[in-house]
Amino acid sequence: MPVIREFFCKLNNCNVYGFQLWTRRFNTSVLNATPKKTIEEKLGIPRRPKRPPTSFMIFASERRPALIQQNPDKKPSALIKMISEEWKILDESKKKELQERFKKDWVKYLQDSKNYDESLSPGEKERIKIEKEEAKILQAKRTLKKKRAELGCPKKPGSSYMYFMQTKLKERHGESFVEFQQKVRKQWEDLPSSEKKKFEEMYKKDLEEYREKMAEWNKQMLAMGNRDVVRSL
């Protein structure tokens, strides 16, 4: 675990997920980025009450504006480190005051969450449950895709149409990609079968090479114990 993340987790009594969550909030505030919609908001349901910031998070939020002003060129990760160092030497009475604020906010959060859950209809609860399950599946797929890429998984070639489109890229002049794609799709549909054959052969050749590389890569992954990344051919 990186030093900053490990130190943050110890200070803030949280796990890696807690660190990632706070870092996202910190970066969103620093960069004035638009926060992502919650699952409830995506479904058109009022959002769930937010968890209150911990004592360390409150301190960080209060210190952040001044540190940004004093260190405009510092990256968010460097600012987090600076705040963590300040927290270590913060007066215990101030820490206690922040901890009391958190406890008070936490009690309110628990009550607000209870009221929120009771306000949801059975249908809304079911929709939220399904959406969360789908989000977990999607995240698992993304994680697996990233792991495969890091382990050098061979890339599957595009279709014969994709090979044709690549030859047309130099003809794109100022038009949007959607317009360009529509034009090329029409050209492909009008292309005689005899001319399409060249691109189909290119695809078949690359597909065979891909399958050979994939079979070898799968063997390597099994030998390394990475059974979860093995792909079917």
TrEMBL record:
Presence of the UniProt keyword Zinc in the record: no
Keyword Mitochondrion included in the entry's annotation: no
Species per Swiss-Prot/TrEMBL record: Nezara viridula
Ranges in coiled-coil conformation: 200-227
GO molecular function, one term: DNA binding
Keyword line: Coiled coil, DNA-binding, Nucleus
GO cellular-component term (any): nucleus
Residue ranges: DNA binding: 49-117, 154-218
GO BP terms: regulation of transcription by RNA polymerase II
Domain HMG box: from-to ranges: 49-117, 154-218
Protein name: HMG box domain-containing protein
